[in-house]
Design brief:
mainly alpha; two-stranded parallel sheet; 4 strands; about 40% helix
Length: about 170
């Protein structure tokens, strides 16, 4: 999906590590076990995770799952306005920082559901966003995260809320 079919020969990768030296499972192993346990079938990842996807498919098979039942979508990573990749940067935006800045979850969901598509950025209920969601609409190139656009959506959402819904968060 999005970037099209990709193949990677597992022999080109080293054997995956599944347990750390202290006995804790790695993120890849824990993720594969959890996905199988709860029946996850669709995974969206950064295109930088293509090698990890091959390992996830192999782990699913090794754990008795059906890799053919998994669907992966790989998206380009978000970039800041300067086109630098956002993930894993010290100054990157986090859900916690956005929440602390007063960004409503509904505004963030609406922004991310349409960021990188040609659809207009408008505040909408989650049910509407879900019904209209199509992963194939996303761009194949990095999309800049524009805080001003998110804040504009946030203002739309806040204007639509009753005072009682936000009163406890006001100074």
């Amino acid at each position: 999906m999005v970037l099209g079919h990709r193949e990677l020969a597992l022999p080109s990768l080293s054997d995956p590590i599944v347990l750390l030296s202290d006995g804790r499972p790695t993120r890849a192993f824990a993720g594969a076990v959890d996905d199988l346990a709860v029946g996850i079938t669709d995974l969206i990842r950064s295109d930088t995770q293509l090698p990890a996807t091959a390992v996830a498919i192999d782990l699913c098979d090794a754990l008795g799952g059906d890799p053919a039942g998994l669907r992966f979508a790989h998206l380009p990573p978000l970039a800041d306005a300067g086109e630098k990749r956002l993930a894993r940067r010290v100054d990157a935006r986090t859900l916690r920082s956005l929440r602390n800045d007063g960004v409503e979850g509904t505004a963030l969901a609406a922004y991310l559901a349409r960021l990188g598509t040609e659809q207009p950025l408008v505040a909408a209920p989650l049910a509407t966003l879900a019904a209209d969601f199509d992963i194939t609409r996303f761009a194949r190139h990095p999309t800049p995260f524009k805080a001003a656009a998110l804040l504009a959506l946030n203002r739309q959402v806040l204007r639509s809320l009753d005072y009682a819904a936000v009163a406890d968060r006001l100074p």
